[in-house]
User: What shape does this take?
Amino acid sequence: MTEAQLREAIERLRGTGARITPQRRGILEYLVETKSHPTADEIYKKLEKKLPHMSSATVYNNLKTLKKAGLVSELTYGDHSSRFDIETSDHYHIICLDCGKIRNFRFPVLTEIEAFAETITSYKVKSHRMEVYGICPECWSG
Assistant: This one.
C-alpha cells in the first residue's frame, strides 16, 4: 500500500463517520509499512513508544473499527491469535511452518470452486480462504 492508498483508507474511514485519531492513524500507517500480518499485541508493542498513552485495549478496539470499515481483514489460524492484513482485495497466504511468517500472493480467484461447492452442497457460498504452508527462505537457508 502506498501513501496515496493510505490517504484513501483515511478518507474511507472518515466516510464511515469514524474520527481519525492519532491511534487509528498510527495503526493504519504501521499496517501499511509492515509486510507482515501482525497480531494486535505486536502492533501495540511497535507503537507504544510513538503513542505512549495507547493501551492494548485501544489497539483491539481500533482494529475492530478498521475491520468494520472494511480497511483491514482479520486472519485466524490455529495459534488462537488473530492477525491483521491491510490488503483486503482477493489474495491468498503462504505461511512458514517454522517461524509463522505470512506472505500474500495472488492467484486467479477460485470462483469455479465456489460454484461447484454450491452445486453439490446447496449452500450459498459467501467466501473462501486458501492457505499454503511451507518453509520461508530465511528459515530454510539458515
Remarks:
- The mean pLDDT is 89.
- The chain is about 45% helix and 15% strand.
- The domain at 3-85 is CATH 1.10.10.10 (Arc Repressor Mutant, subunit A).
